Structure to design on (202 residues):
């Protein structure tokens, strides 16, 4: 009697064991799918961030060039320090280059925008790679997408009575920069990051 009861218990336990094993296996596969998707999203966001920053940095270089050309020749040269006088002619190429370096493609042109009063660019990218094969149908053909916005923030202030025809002192985050329009050399300007910061919008 006892041996028959033990055999019956083992017979009842086997299906339960198989059922639990199946659940655990499915849970592990589902976790792997979510991990794949999270990895693709993280990669896409990194690519979007890099592309947006590249667009903003390209326009910052344009601002620096315009400022250098304006000092001593344009009585309105101080307006270049506001950060909005760029055309953005090279931003698409710059953003696409950084997206490609992160295995992604730029979707459309970077869109010029303003965040908290600071000019910048909004970009959308799509990864060249897919989420990958999984137990969920369609993931092998699904590309991750992400977007990001980067802005150019002016860092310099000057006196309200500053005369653009006379020497002007700029306060750039604590760094004091003296500019003499009548005796200006491009080496008088500091690195672009001193005059304008480029960062992702929050």
């Amino acid at each position: 009697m006892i041996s028959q009861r033990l055999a019956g218990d083992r017979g009842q336990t086997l299906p339960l064991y198989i059922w639990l094993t199946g659940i655990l296996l499915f849970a592990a596969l589902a976790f792997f799918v979510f991990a794949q998707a999270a990895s693709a999203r993280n990669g896409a966001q990194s690519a979007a961030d890099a592309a947006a920053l590249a667009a903003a940095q390209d326009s910052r270089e344009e601002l620096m060039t315009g400022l250098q050309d304006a000092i001593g020749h344009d009585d309105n040269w101080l307006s270049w320090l506001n950060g909005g006088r760029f055309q953005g002619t090279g931003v698409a190429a710059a953003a696409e280059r950084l997206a490609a370096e992160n295995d992604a493609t730029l979707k459309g042109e970077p869109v010029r925008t303003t965040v908290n009063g600071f000019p910048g660019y909004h970009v959308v990218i799509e990864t060249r790679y897919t989420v990958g094969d999984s137990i969920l149908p369609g993931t092998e053909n699904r590309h991750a997408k992400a977007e990001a916005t980067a802005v150019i923030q002016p860092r310099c202030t000057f006196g309200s009575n500053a005369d653009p025809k006379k020497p002007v002192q700029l306060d750039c985050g604590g760094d004091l920069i003296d500019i003499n329009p009548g005796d200006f050399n491009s080496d008088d300007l500091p690195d672009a990051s001193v005059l304008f910061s480029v960062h992702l919008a929050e």
Notes: The chain is about 40% helix and 25% strand. Residues 2-200 form one domain. The chain has a mean pLDDT of 84.
